[in-house]
Amino acid sequence: EDENRSSGGLTRVLQGGEVIEKGACSFTLIRGGVLSAERAKTISARQADVLVQAGDAYAAAALSMVLHSKSPMIPTFRSDVRVFWVQSANGQEKAWFGGGADLTPYYLDEKDIGSFHQ
Fold it and tell me: Which of 6, 42, 89, 110 makes the best surface tag, with the fewest CB within 10 Å?
């Protein structure tokens, strides 16, 4: 298989720890993609400085993580980061990142909110 067009993913699970009851980390990679007209339109609407059209090449990667603790006093943690890269027919390249992280508390503690968002 052509190495520049291969895609796939990998997930690893952590469970049964002293602090983390269960967690998972997933990595996904797409290479050698070709933009559909619908996807190109969506990107253009969200990224005004990106000139893309159907048929442009793209690649994308994502890393996601979720951690559930044993203690209900420790919030669940979730995060993901993504990168998207497009190369237009004229050779122009553009990449951008997205993602975020959050805590899902079982019991709300105002100090946790402030600490997480510093």
Answer: 110
